[in-house]
Amino acid sequence: MGTEAALSSETLVEFRQALEAFDLDEVWPHLAPYLPGVEGSATQRNYRSGVKEFIGWAQTQGHALLRPGEAMGGAYLAHLHARYAGKPSTLTTRLSQARALYRVLRKLGLVPRNLDPFSALERPTVQPGAAREYYTNDELTRLLAHGTTEQRALVLLGAHGGLTTSEVLSVHWSQIQLQRGELIVHGRAVHASEELLEALRAYARTQGVGDLFTSEARVFDIEGPTALRSQLYRLCKAANVSYRAWRALRHYAGLRLYLLTGNAERVRQELGLVTLQLTEPYRRKVEEGT
């Protein structure tokens, strides 16, 4: 880290005004001591470049740095994917530099301690009984209507298949058994709805994959979880649907299956959950009236 010094109330006012004006030259002297590296080092020059990009983007897109909307994090991630396609390490660095800015702002009290515009990009573990987010039937319909052939297959693997991000990224065509209407994922059988199978067939045709799905290639050529979440964010924006993390599609799948079967053990098996306790939120939501 740079050499930190307590900021006077007058300096904090100047820092705030510089942020409100998107003035990097005025922001940087206050920010730099709280970031890695020493003055003039390559590390600090890299951070300055990343912060400059983020502040410039925020100004262009009309995002207030001290009062960011909940969609700002996802929007910046989509921007990074568009600019740094094929450069995942650069994308990750730029995103971490924007996060670092808000860590400093929270530390100095310039934004609330719980304000993190990038929190929606996180994937915290959902504890038993914790509140879960779901996409609604209407939202899913809109996502499918606005999605490309690839995006429809992606969304339905989450919303009907209940696959996690890592499972979606690693699934191979040969794991899809059309005759039995199943996907074999990490040793477990996942029932595939006819809508999901048709979406996969349609996408397979665009990829030159035969009807028997015998290819050992991965179904999706997506770089990683961040790129997958970016795809979902852009689709939500196009469909005028509030963005929620990928797990909200998976929760939709769990609730859908519970509604169809009323069988908690089957839900546990198909989602690959460790215990039946993890299906309790679905049961409670059904009892509350979905």
Task: From the structure above, extract its key features.
DNA recombination, 290 residues, single chain, mainly alpha, Integrase_recombinase_N, DNA integration, 3 strands, hpI Integrase, Chain A, DNA binding
Structure description:
55% of the residues lie in helices and 3% in strands. The longest helix has 20 residues, at 42-61. Residues 123-129 have low confidence and may be disordered. A hairpin with a 4-residue loop joins strand 1 and strand 2 (182-185). It has 290 residues and is mostly helical. The chain has 13 helices and 3 strands, in the order H-H-H-H-H-H-H-H-E-E-E-H-H-H-H-H. The chain has 2 domains: 9-121; 137-288, hpI Integrase, Chain A (Orthogonal Bundle), CATH 1.10.443. The chain has a 3-stranded antiparallel beta sheet. It has helices at 9-20, 24-31, 42-61, 72-83, 88-107, 137-146, 149-159, 165-170, 194-207, 225-239, 247-261, 264-271, 280-288, and strands at residues 176-177, 182-185, 188-191.
